[in-house]
TrEMBL record:
One GO cellular component term noted in the UniProt record for this chain: cytoplasm
An individual GO BP term: porphyrin-containing compound biosynthetic process
Stored PANTHER family: COPROPORPHYRINIGEN III OXIDASE, OXYGEN-INDEPENDENT COPROPORPHYRINOGEN-III OXIDASE-LIKE PROTEIN HEMZ
Organism: Anaerostipes butyraticus
Domain Radical SAM core: 127-368
Protein's name in the database: Coproporphyrinogen III oxidase
GO molecular function: 4 iron, 4 sulfur cluster binding; catalytic activity
NCBIfam families linked to this entry: rSAM_HemZ
Length: 450
């Protein structure tokens, strides 16, 4: 083994040597990667970063006999590389080739990423996103907290007495957003969490009334509500959502295997998902999304196939294929050693993607997370015209995403400086409620600094 590693080390030194010679040549010519050297220092981070990552990756890849589907890429938005490539006039074939050469990604992932961006560009070309912003409203309550969850999520039964005060604070923050963007309405609205539909009917109606009075929900281009848990929905709640003009809901089974649902802390069955889905169709919803997770604890291909048979029978309008992420703050991270296996495999993700295509769904947005075992990705698939614009806008960071509520994060764009300011809200429900004026002040400072 030592001899093998020594030979790889020699190989890495050769790579560094070749890169060094190239840098010196470019330095002498007064240019590095097409950019003039201003400092006189050829040891430029931009120049060295990718070669170093490639060399280290190749060292471990050869030593372990393993390749990663995304190669050296660790960021959550590989689509930005493709956007940049198209902006520089490169062809799709050139971008895929460069993806493989520069980042050692597989041809399959490079092609998927490029296909997603082509769809995004087509959708964005018909949407004047520069003229507005998007609003995210966070409702941090759930029937129960899933094993893998790291979002702000509090059991609704235990926190019911705090809901009114939370909605009061939320209303105050929403009114501030309305005042700051006077004369503008959000183009897309996303109500997430948590599970917003875990609110009681009167509280759900109050939430929508608050938003409607500020922005007239039915006038917005797109309105999504996470109704992910079937044990949080009823006919009455679906009718309230429909009445206020919600255009898209998510009913997220994650898996259609009852044993796994119990294992991850969900108090419902696969049949409950089917019944709730049918109820939503009867309530008139024509754009229903479903989320699934590949690689849940103790699930293999057999369980995944069962999930996708059931999903295909229901026929959602869009489908997000997640690869299990083991977040540091999740319960899963604390008990993962108790499971025989967890985490998606490339075969699982490929199977899920193939099923989505067979259902007439095409990939339209993509992102990655650092805590995904196997260096895999999450992909959103949708029927034509059923894509979620908010998902694209938040991934590609194209206009302000203003987020209100506990545990949310706003992204405020400064187009003139090509920079993004992030504003975080406190995650704890009681702290957020007590300190909402501070949350508003944080936003005001960043917004006025644009």
């Amino acid at each position: 083994m030592t001899d093998h590693v020594d030979s790889i080390y020699d190989f890495v030194l050769d790579v560094f040597y070749e890169e060094e010679q190239m840098r010196m040549t470019l330095y002498q010519e007064g240019s590095v990667c097409g950019e003039k050297i201003l400092t006189g220092d050829y040891r430029n981070k931009k120049v060295w970063k990718n070669p170093v990552k490639r060399a280290v990756y190749q060292l471990f890849s050869k030593a372990l006999g393993k390749e990663l589907p995304w190669g050296t890429l660790t960021g959550i938005r590989p689509t930005k590389i493709v956007f940049d490539g198209f902006a520089k006039g490169k062809t799709q074939e050139q971008i895929i080739r460069d993806f493989q050469k520069d980042y050692l990604a597989s041809e399959e992932k490079a092609a998927l990423c490029t296909k997603v961006v082509k769809t995004e560009q087509e959708l964005l070309s018909r949407f004047p996103y520069e003229e507005g912003y998007s609003l995210y409203v966070g409702i941090p309550f759930c029937p129960s907290t899933c094993l893998y969850c790291s979002f702000a999520s509090y059991p609704i039964r235990a926190y019911q007495e705090h809901v009114k005060a939370y909605l009061d604070a939320l209303e105050k923050e929403i009114l501030f957003v309305k005042e700051h963007y006077k004369g503008q309405k959000p183009q897309t609205l996303y109500i997430g969490g948590g599970t917003p539909t875990s609110l009681e009917e009167k509280d759900l109606e109050r939430l929508l009334e608050i938003i409607d009075q500020c922005f007239s929900i039915k006038d917005l281009m797109e309105v999504t509500v996470e109704a992910g848990r079937p044990d949080s929905l009823s006919w009455e709640k679906l009718k309230i959502l429909s009445q206020y003009g919600v255009t898209r809901i998510s009913i997220n089974p994650q898996t259609m295997n009852d044993a796994t649902l119990r294992r991850i802390g969900r108090n419902h069955t696969a049949d409950d998902v089917r019944e709730t889905y049918d109820l939503a169709r009867k309530a008139g919803f024509q754009n229903i999304n479903m989320d699934t997770i590949c690689g849940l604890p103790e699930e293999g291909m057999k369980e995944l196939e069962q999930t996708y048979r059931a999903v295909r029978e229901m026929g959602p309008d869009s489908l997000t294929v997640h690869s299990l992420a083991v977040k540091r703050s999740s319960r899963l991270n604390q008990v993962k050693e108790h499971f025989h296996h967890y985490g998606a495999t490339p075969e699982m993700v490929a199977y899920a993607g193939k099923c989505a295509l067979q259902m007439g769904l095409e990939p339209y947005y993509l992102y990655r997370q650092k805590n995904i075992p196997g260096n895999l990705e999450n992909v959103g698939f949708a029927k034509k015209s059923k894509e979620c614009l908010y998902n694209i806008l938040i991934m590609e960071e194209l206009h302000d995403i203003i987020a209100v509520g506990a545990g949310t994060s706003s992204k405020i764009m400064d187009q003139s400086r090509h920079s993004i300011s992030r504003v975080e809200n406190l995650k704890d429900v009681l702290q957020y409620t007590a300190r909402v004026d501070e949350m508003i002040h944080r936003k005001e400072v960043k917004m006025n600094g644009k």
